[in-house]
Specification:
Rossmann fold, alpha/beta, five-stranded parallel sheet, 390 residues, seven-stranded mixed sheet, globular, 2 domains
């Protein structure tokens, strides 16, 4: 813990030096034949699967846009940095991208915490920060209620996912007594749990057990034993795939057969490896899209992705990475400039933009209004269950 705070202190000290001389950082972009875009992702570390998936989608979108002449005749020049799934590294990456590389915008991070770690830098240097998948409300609206002026997102927010999951449990699965098992150290998990709990109780349901774990835990049997003793009909498990995979595996080994549900944090090929395909039967997630959607535009993306990545089917993070590039490119084009203040206004005015993960309109808090999809795992594969409109 001390080592982590030392890293954050060093990052803050670096930031103070950067901000002292950050004015005019974007001037060179106007006369260039390229638009510099930073990519600050979790390409190694605990949630590298998310960052790697986003990167693949980003790469396809950039290739397509540049092949078709770029944005207003300017090619997108992507500069990548690996934040190693750590907040201090995410801060350091943002400092480098804004002060040294002088990017117009930063795409990333994958997680809410690593995006929030860049927010002050984005606001103070007037750099667009666009997270594909950071779902916590405090990404765009700080804990004190202030809007992060230059921060936007492509994904819907946690409260919406929690509402969708609670309504699915009560109205589709018809369960009345449920348990919640959440990561106590994750803002993502806590936000989802709170939203689910509030909505489920309003629907007349009862929370019979609330338990917590901490990221990096590997043995969940004692807690699962307590949950099992309460006889829930359903367990909501908001969290990331590393722990969730083990939780699902151990729950099934202990004879817990009730439906299990989570959110987009489950969405990783690693989940099936950790939990096992059989254990994942009768589990559900809220997510941003499905590759099974017959929409022509979506299927064109799926085909392009499979052609590039050896038949691999694109997951939601692949699609969100792809969409984020197109959302940014659309705003730059409508702004008619690489002036970040003008791009910010264009992003705020985004309305009914059709992308792979839905039709997006940006609200007053810089969040997209869009649909959510509920997917079910069957024999290790995600199968479309239903779509929920906002």
């Amino acid at each position: 813990m001390k080592k982590k705070w030392a890293k954050m202190f060093m990052a803050s000290a670096m930031l103070a030096g950067v901000l002292a001389g950050c004015s005019g950082a974007k001037e060179s972009s106007e006369t260039s034949d390229t638009i510099k875009i930073g990519v600050n992702l979790e390409l190694s570390g605990g949630v590298a699967s998310y960052g790697e998936s986003l990167e693949k989608g980003i790469d396809i979108a950039v290739s397509e846009i540049n092949k078709n002449g770029g944005v207003d005749g300017k090619k997108l020049d992507i500069i990548k940095t690996d934040n190693k799934s750590e907040t201090a590294e995410a801060t350091n990456g943002a400092i480098k991208l804004t002060s040294q590389d002088k990017v117009t915008a930063i795409i990333g991070a994958a997680t809410s915490g690593n995006t929030v770690a860049q927010a002050q830098i984005a606001n103070d240097t007037k750099t667009i920060l666009l997270t594909p998948s950071g779902t916590s409300p405090n990404v765009t609206v700080a804990d004190n209620g202030d809007l992060n002026e230059y921060v936007f997102r492509t994904s819907f927010i946690d409260p919406f996912q929690g509402i969708v999951a609670a309504n699915f449990a009560s109205k589709e699965l018809k369960v009345k007594n449920v348990a919640i098992f959440a990561d106590s150290a994750s803002d993502y998990a806590k936000g989802l749990a709170a939203s689910f709990k509030e909505t489920f109780k309003k629907d007349g349901g009862k929370i019979v057990a609330e338990e917590a774990y901490v990221g990096k835990d590997t043995d969940f049997r004692a807690t699962l034993t307590r949950i099992k003793a309460k006889n829930p009909e359903f367990i909501f498990i908001p969290g990331y795939y590393e722990e969730v995979g083990l939780i699902v595996k151990q729950a099934r080994e202990m004879g817990i057969t009730v439906p299990l549900m989570g959110a987009d944090g489950w969405d990783s090929p690693k989940l099936v490896e950790l939990a096992g395909a059989d254990a994942l039967n009768n589990t559900f997630i809220t997510n941003h899209y499905t590759s099974e959607d017959p929409d022509e535009t979506i299927q064109k993306f799926v085909t392009t992705y499979k052609d590039k990545y050896n038949g691999e089917s694109p997951n939601a993070f692949n699609a969100l990475g792809y969409d984020t590039v197109y959302l940014l490119a659309d705003a730059i084009k409508r702004a008619g400039s690489t002036d970040t203040a003008k791009i910010k206004v264009a992003l705020e005015k985004t309305k009914d933009l059709s992308l792979i993960t839905g039709v997006i309109t940006i609200d007053k808090n810089h969040n997209p209004i869009k649909s959510a999809t509920v997917l079910e795992y069957k024999d290790g594969k995600q199968v479309f269950n239903t779509k929920v409109n906002p």
